[in-house]
Structure formats: structure tokens, C-alpha cells
């Protein structure tokens, strides 16, 4: 029983990090109605900026904490600049275009960020040290024989992700700007007709998505190291948004938890009999099943077209 709970806890903590990445997809989709394939590249670009800025500032500040704080602020400002550039040079020229055009635009942004990131920061593997604890801890020894072994790094990362997810959910539901973002996603021309500035909304939502990318990039960079394969981690968020629904912030949370727990449990309990490697493809098979049975996801709105 203890091993089951330990495996489930590890999966749920990983799922919370998947949910954090998935939020970037949901935010852009809610504001522009397009699936943002550049989210993984944004996360990598932000992590590269954080790692390199911290390395450059450390000799000048003499303090890792100060260097990390300044590097984090610098990465946020850089992603804000990316948001403004995306709106000014891409989205502004694609207003009221079909979804396919916007989708191809995000693919172009992804490859551009990959190239610019390598040009500015190099292609080496970098380390981000933000002081997250690395040693595992044993808990609940009085309840389970031998206790439960948990990764303190995963616990801290999951708590940070949970707080950020909660704040963004409140932002979308309780603030005027959040409601404006939802209005633009539902009907951009109608939103413009009542005075909502489309350009401003797009800049804000890409800035928020950039902030999410910085936090996710720092967490995953601290866990795995900052390397160009880090952008592939974002692909695990695709099944998450399919499960939860493309327009649902709570759906991103639930989808992340389901994927994280499901892949860990299936790898541990089904892997030995099926040959292993289930953790790699479990989420995509689950997403395929949802596309066949409930394409709008658990919390997505079912579209009804009348002719």
C-alpha cells in the first residue's frame, strides 16, 4: 500500500508540472482561439535566458540569490518583449484570419525562438540552481512500514505550480481583464465592437503565457538541465489540454493530474508485463481515446452547430 501511494504521489506531482505547461496552451487558446505550438519554444527560450543571465550576473553580484532574482526579472522582461514583438509583427497582421493561419504563425514563432535562442545563448547544456532541495525525504513512517520516500524537489515544484495555477484561475474568473480575454476568445469582432482592444488583449495574454513559460522553464531546467530537448517536455502537455479541454484552466489541472498519475502507475504496474516504456506513450494513447469519445475534453464546451 505504501509503495502504491508513493508512486501515486510522484505521478501527481509530475502532473502538476504538466498542468503548468498546459496553462500556456490554454491561455493563448482562450485569447486567440489558436493552439500555440510555440509554447515549448517559449519555455526553452525563457529557461536559456534565466540560466545565462544568472551565469553572467553571478561574478558581478557575488550572490547566487541576487543573481537569480535579477536573472528572473530579466527573463520576464525578455518574454514581455517577445509578447510585444509577436503582437506587433505577427498577430496584428492576422486579425480575423482563419485558425490555420494563426496555427502556422505559432509554428513559425517556435522555430524562430529556437534559432534566436541558440544564436544568443549558445547550444550547450546549462544548469539552473535556484536553491530547490534535491535530497529525498521519508515521511509518514508511523503509518507505513518504512515510510514514504518523496522527492523534496518535486514537492516544492508542485507547490509552486499549484499556487501559480490557482492565481491564474482567479485572474481569468474574477478580473475584468480576464473576462475581456474570454470575450476575445469567444468572438473577437464582437469584443472589438464593445470597446475591447484586441491588440492590448493579445499582448497581455502572451505576456502572461511568457510568465508561465519562465516559471515552467526554471522548474524543468532545475530538474533536467537547460538543453534544447527541454522543449520536447512541452509535448507532454498536449494530451493534458486534450483531456481537460482547450479552454478550461481547471481542465488543465485535472488533465495534468490524470496524465501524471496514470503514466506513473501504468509504468510501475503494467510495464513489467508489457515490456516497459509505457510512460512514454501512455498520455498520447489516453488523449487519442478522448478524441474519439469526447473530443471537447472533460471540461471543454461541446460545440453545437445549427444549419
Labels describing this entry:
single chain; two-stranded antiparallel sheet; globular; mainly alpha; 307 residues
Q: Write down the domain tally.
A: 1
What structural class do the secondary elements suggest? mainly alpha
Helix content: over 70%
Instruction: Give the H and E element order.
Output: HHHHEEHHHHHHHH
On the 0-100 scale, what is the average pLDDT? Answer: 80
Poorly predicted runs of 5 or more residues: none
Radius of gyration: 20 Å
Largest sheet: 2 strands, antiparallel
The backbone outline, from C-alpha atoms, is globular
Got a strand count? Answer: 2
List the helices and strands and how they pair.
Elements: H1 2-32, H2 39-61, H3 64-89, H4 99-121, E1 136-139, E2 148-151, H5 152-174, H6 176-186, H7 188-193, H8 198-224, H9 237-244, H10 249-269, H11 271-274, H12 278-293
Helix pairs in contact: 1-5, 1-6, 1-8, 1-9, 1-10, 2-3, 2-4, 2-8, 3-8, 5-6, 5-8, 6-8, 9-10, 9-12, 10-12
